[in-house]
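Chapter review: from sequence to fold.
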Amino acid sequence: MVDPSTRGIPLAQLTVLSAMMAGAVAGALTGWIARRNFLLTMCTFMIGIMGGMLTGTGMGRFCYVHCDGSEMPPIKAGLGALVQSGLAGLAGAVPAAFLVAVAIGFLTLRHLHPRPPRVRTVLTGFLAGVITGILTALVIAVP
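The token string follows.
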């Protein structure tokens, strides 16, 4: 059995996972609030995962991969990793949740006539995505 204190967490991968979770929650919640349709919610959930993966990959490479191609060394899991993993989660969750919530809010609310408020719908999805992404990063960091 592997000792949890020696387990390393690569921050670039943590950024991608956090962005995927944030995009999934932001997409699903924005789609559900916009139309209240289960099929649309599942489609926006999948779109959110894909958008989060693309955004998280870009942010992980931008923040945690050096110019020569070497990654930042993994951090040890535990309570000491909360700050670094929280920042990695924030780096992935904020852009992914914002882009996914705005894109899905724009596409789903475009042709509705009794339209729910756009800003509130997008902001709710964005905040739920950011909170989910940060919590994902913190839960992974602490065994």
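Two observations follow directly from the output. The chain has a mean pLDDT of 88. Helices lie at 11-35, 38-64, 82-108, 118-141.
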